[in-house]
Design brief:
two-stranded antiparallel ribbon; 9 helices
Length: 204
Amino acid sequence: MNYNRMFKYDVVRSLIVVNVIMFVLQMAVPNLTKLFLLSSVQVVQEPWRLLTHMFVHSPITLSHIFFNMFALFMFGPLLQRVVGKKQFLGLYLGTGLLAGIVSVLFHIMQGSIFAGLGASGAIMGMIGVTIILLPRLKLLLFFIIPMPLWAAGILWFILDTLGVFGYSFQGNVANIAHLAGMIAGLAYGVYLKKVKKVHVMIRQ
């Protein structure tokens, strides 16, 4: 495979397209979701689920894939320009993979069965890196409240931590995957900033 040719294409756009195509296929082939989701019961025999669960979303509602792809669309292009296409893809897949592993181990330790799907672990990993590199980046939290990214990150961290301990404002949210992805992203962001000396300035 010619990897240089592959990375001529926009990684963020390609990830969004793949996720949307997979969502359409889920609608057409309902069993696809069961085949690709991450299951703590099946993952040892079917390890591909650690990767495939990132590309399937809840077929019950559009909001799951919409908000994940919206976040990828908003943060992805900026981070891709900073770290490059290859490193962005590695970051996205790596943090998503780690989030899946942590989720499975967490639920095994809790003695509970876990079944999860969606790109949120990878999305939070991407956001974690961006928090370190661009902490003052302005965003509209919930599309309403203006807030620097570092403050939004603290709020998301608190909400997901509460969710892990059972104080969730939403049902069926993989809070531990969010935390694992974000922490991995924060750590990688520190590595880029302190070791690789990556510094970013933007005008808003």
